[in-house]
Design goal:
The chain is an alpha/beta fold. The protein is 42% helix and 15% strand. It has a seven-stranded mixed β-sheet with strand order 3-2-1-4-5-7-6, sandwiched between helices. Helix 1 crosses helix 4. It is globular. The protein binds S-adenosylmethionine (SAM). S-adenosylmethionine (SAM) binds next to helix 1.
Length: 310
């Protein structure tokens, strides 16, 4: 089903399942022999019975077509490498924002937190409040699953169950957010799932709610339309073959992205409002960390942007 303006989901369906997909990659990376990141909560979060269908579909996608008639290999290991690099980058961003000399931010907002476990696994300085925004059922699933696992947040974690296409700044304030304190924001794995207008409004709210000294980090999905179309066609072919075999194909990531058109480049957007920005391509970051960079065949060309409000 393509997206609609007010669609909703739980952790096992639609955009919710993409949070499972990236957490699966973190779980695999954590279990590998030489992990770049350790997310010990990823495995319990993706291992519940209700996620069996999503797990199976992601595994099939990563493996490609078993009959080898369709040349489709998103390459599970590529996805795992990429997620490891991105997690590593944004973990370091939070360490910098909260612990570097002169930074000392104690208010954090994770937009579209999904199964992000940073509020449970990072060593936050005393007094840090981490707000997590996502849809109600996604946040409930995470909190309940981790509570059953005996996990506790390492800091003051506050769930803000709200749709980022709605009045989320009000929901954030209602949860205790203080715009007079500097904030470290994160938008990781989010932009393609927001309509262009909601992305614009979100950046605007971040700017308005940010005291000087605030920081923002954004994962960029540079769209290459030709590559995206090619990947979509391969995906459709693989999907048709899986359907013909009677397999579940309800999770369709390619249906979940909104059009790229009409979007500003985040680095330009924040720079135009006086923020000091820096960008690094995901491929350069992977190389720096000794990981294989993303294949050129991917539909997105990713990079990571960080910005500080002077
Ligand atoms: C690919 S996952 C990324 C999750 C997390 N940031 C991570 O990297 O593990 C996308 C997340 O965006 C959330 N999301 C997408 N659109 C949203 C919206 N309009 N409002 C709130 N959350 C949204 C989904 O529920 C999902 O958890």
């Amino acid at each position: 089903m393509p997206r609609t303006a007010d669609d909703s989901w739980d952790i096992a369906t639609s955009v919710g399942a993409t949070a499972v997909m990236v957490a699966l990659a973190r779980a695999r990376e954590t279990a590998s022999t030489d992990p770049l990141i350790r997310d010990q909560f990823a495995e319990p979060l993706v291992s519940t019975p209700e996620l069996g269908g999503v797990r199976e579909q992601v595994a099939a996608w990563w493996a490609g077509d078993r009959d080898d008639e369709v040349d489709f290999a998103v390459g599970g290991q590529q996805m795992i490498n990429y997620q490891a690099v991105r997690t590593h980058f944004f973990d370091a961003y939070f360490v910098q924002a909260t612990q570097a000399a002169g930074a000392g931010i104690r208010q954090v907002v994770i937009l579209a937190a999904g199964l992000d476990s940073r509020a449970y696994r990072l060593a936050w300085p005393d007094g840090t409040v981490v707000y997590e925004i996502d849809l109600p059922k996604v946040l409930e699933y995470k909190a309940e699953t981790l509570a059953r696992h005996g996990a506790e947040p390492t800091t003051d974690r506050r769930a803000v169950p709200v749709d980022l296409r709605d009045d989320w700044p009000q929901a954030l304030r209602d949860a205790g957010f203080d715009p007079a304190r500097p904030t470290a924001w994160l938008a990781e794995g989010l932009l393609p799932f927001l309509p262009a207008a909601a992305q614009e409004a979100m950046f605007d709210s971040i700017d308005k709610l940010s005291e000087p000294g605030s920081r923002v980090a954004v994962e960029i999905f540079g769209a290459d339309e030709a590559k995206r179309k090619e990947a979509e066609e391969k995906w459709a072919a693989l999907r048709a073959r899986r359907e013909a075999r009677g397999e579940d194909t309800s999770f369709n990531p390619f249906d979940l992205w909104f059009d790229h058109g009409g979007r500003s480049e985040p680095a330009d957007w924040f720079a135009a409002r006086g923020w000091a920005t820096a960008s690094v391509s995901a491929s350069d970051e992977a190389t720096r960390l000794g990981r294989t960079p993303q294949s050129d065949a991917r539909p997105f060309v990713n990079s990571f942007v960080t910005a500080t409000k002077p």
